[in-house]
# Entry
Amino acid sequence: MNRSRIAGVLLAVALATGSGAAQPAVPPAITRTDLESYLSRTVTMEGMLHGWGNLDEQIRFLQRVGARFAGRTLYLWGSEQNFAQLLAAAVPAATKAHESLPDLVLQGAVFEIVTTQINNVAVPNASLEAFDLPKEDRHFDYDAMLYESGKFVNHWGKGSSVPDMSRIETQLWFYTAATRYIDCGVEAIHFGQVSLMDQHDPGHVGWRSMLDKVRVYAATHARRHFVLCDAHVPTGGIVDDGHLLFDFHSFPLRIDEVADKPQEGVLKVGYLDSIYGRSKGGITPSGWDCEHLPYLVEFDNWGRSGREGQNIGGYWIWGYDEIGWFAHQDSACRAQWLRYAWDWVREHDPNGYLQMPGSRTVAAPIGDDGKKWYWAMNPSKAWPDGFGDEDVIKAIWTADRSAR
# Structure
């Protein structure tokens, strides 16, 4: 973000929070140019702030390839009782990353899951105050977050459900997680599968209330006074009265098998629920209008089919989830496919950007040693488990001039 942009942000915050201000801080805007400068250099770094792997090596990788946005660096998938421990590890890791890469946007994620463990997490008084609720010493209430109809209850297993965003308790938890991530140095939040949590609120009132509060919090507490909010949007996005809910959209790549060429995969407009050409437009939370909101497509992970190597159809790519399929290819195939995918997305929809794979869990073990994690970094003494894809990522971004 350039100096004039930062100056504008700080001025907006100062005016909104100065003496005698009648309204809460107005979340500052981000221009489309600034937004796309981040999206065009995005790489998934799952769990980077958790203390997983060699942090120094991950920072070195991000510096070398020229990353500006590191996705999914901080998150929970259930296991809410570890929330405080997670935050404690994230603060020094984020600080160290920003010492080397001050312009890097770190993304956290609050996903479409709550478990009974959340009953052990205390509700901060600051969160209660943000929702005009009375201050009290209490914990979050799992049952108060669920669809009262029973929909999606135990969806992820016993005591593990999809929350209903129309319920205040759900909004309270998502706000708490997002704002605590912001306190750690995070400047972007991914909110998972929005449609699963938005099925009892036709006007998206719950989502808007929660996101508005997160943006107001970021205006005064985020390290550069902004937060970029996104979610997976199978319908192409949420627009209400011409206004977009998110700052950008994201979705899985949705790779189709080439049936007569084992292990080969291609991208197609209109394949399954892919987002290409379908990202909805409108007035963004920053106030600018667009026909199609910029978006990211990523190598998604969701599990193991047990039929790896077979063309079983559906969302699977040769029996793997997306990152699993990619990680099981040899080095030459991975390099060729990254070049292909980057060029294909830019050619077929200039609103879209490929989110490069940097660090991500793999469900189907790889190789004789059964690796279950993909790391893009070049292998070295510091990190021998690297897959060696950093050179091609750097080359693709160096050659690309679509968003500087």
Confidence is low (pLDDT under 50) at residues 1-25.
